Amino acid sequence: MSTVRQKANSRISHLRSLLCVGLDSDDQKIPEIFKKTGSPVLEFNRAIIRATSNSAVAYKINTAFYEARGIPGIQDMERTLADIPRACITIADAKRADIGNTSKKYAEAFFEHWSFDALTVAPYMGFDSLEPFFAYEDKLVFVLCLTSNEGSKDFEEQLLGDGRPLYETVLEKVNQWNRGGNAGIVVGATKNGQLEAIRAAAPDLFFLIPGVGAQGGSLDEAVRYGADSAKESALVNVSRSLIFPQGAFASIDAFEQAVSVESEKLHLAMKRAM
Ligand SMILES: O=C(O)c1cc(=O)[nH]c(=O)n1[C@@H]1O[C@H](COP(=O)(O)O)[C@@H](O)[C@H]1O
């Protein structure tokens, strides 16, 4: 069993929270007050972390928001990683996978160089493209299964020759690849109609469920159907609706207070749904 998975589950049961805070820190959307600091994205992330750390099990860094700014963005990502409390799980949302020797380098980058606890990967290129990630038995590898977006219809929901959607084959394969107990899947909270059946077909996988808030997925159902029988092994990610509260803020403290209120609301809703 992956040590990261054990760590995530002990925090989930301790806090009774499945909250994964998405640090999709779009520099164009960061409140004005942070622009007066020398490092707006970093100070913004630090404020989010301070405001959410009592409720968060994990922080998901969507690398696009950092890569888009080149070296300064990557430096912000690195310094943010150093500020995430040790008790929490760090997820690199980079959706990688390539031919084996390239995947090996991606795995080294995210799991060794940056020491992330978990990574999102795409299943399209098959097992040899994912094996180098699964080789890290102490980590968690989240394979895209049924994503939250409209385009999930283009491939993931297409019926194969056996009459079943492609994502069910992905699910079946990830179940087989979970020998080290370090495999997970990504299922969108906007696909709650399918979530219960997916959990029933994958009782042993760890679930990452994004799509609550800005994309309109139900938090209640994500928690109720996404968690396993022990009410663990799932993370519900919230990014924009948590990190960009409405309104203008006169100070960083006031911003932090607004994020903290929202984070506590999400935590309470999760406790109720568990
Ligand atoms: O892998 C993901 O995290 C992911 C998969 C998916 O199906 N849908 C999805 O929205 N995501 C990510 O989850 C986050 C959702 O952000 P919000 O819609 O702002 O909460 C973004 O970082 C997305 O890239």
Attached small molecules: orotidine-5'-monophosphate
Question: What percentage of the residues does DSSP assign to strands (E)?
Answer: 15-25%
Mean pLDDT: 97
Named at the architecture level, the CATH assignment is Alpha-Beta Barrel
Rg, rounded, reads: 18 Å
Approximately how much helix is present in the residues? Answer: 40-55%
What does this protein structure show overall?
- It is a single chain.
- The chain is of the alpha/beta class and 274 residues long.
- It has a single domain (3-273), classed as TIM Barrel, CATH 3.20.20.
- It is built from twelve helices and eight strands.
- It is globular, with a radius of gyration of 18 Å.
- The mean pLDDT is 97.
- The site of orotidine-5'-monophosphate has 18 residues, from strand 8.
- Residues 22, 24, 62, 93, 120, 147-148, 186, 188, 210-211, 213-215, 237-240 line the site of orotidine-5'-monophosphate.
- Belongs to the OMP decarboxylase family. Type 2 subfamily.
- Keywords: Decarboxylase, Lyase, Pyrimidine biosynthesis.
- GO terms for molecular function: orotidine-5'-phosphate decarboxylase activity.
